[in-house]
Amino acid sequence: MKPIRNETVLVSTTSLEVAADLEGLEKRTDLIIRNTSPNAVDIITLSLGRNAAVANAGIVLRQNEIWMSSTDISNPAWSGAIQAICATINGQLSIMEKS
Q1: Model confidence at 74, in pLDDT bands (50, 70, 90)?
Q2: pTM above the 0.90 mark?
Q3: Sequence spans of domains, the chain
Q4: What is the 3-state secondary structure (H, E, C) of the chain?
Q5: Which CATH number is associated with domain 5-98?
């Protein structure tokens, strides 16, 4: 089992990868992404996979909202890449992941 990743990632108006593609490697068991941006207008959109995130087209997280994926008996956690983009230049995500 890999060590837990527990960090903050800054997100702006350009899409960036916030979680690496682990397909073919050790799979994730837990992934929690929370919008911890300082302002309510700092809306962040996540895109699962390698395609660039597009604002408001995907998983939309308003301030303090969470997206998570966890492994259970019949459903593995998402192990692909995750992209993020923010409506403003002040976005911030807190990410906890383990595999």
Answers
A1: confident
A2: yes
A3: 5-98
A4: CCCCEEEEEEECCCCEEEECCCCCCCCCCEEEEEECCCCCCCCEEEEECCCCCECCECEEECCCCEEEEECECCECCCCCCEEEEECCCCEEEEEEEEC
A5: 2.60.120.770
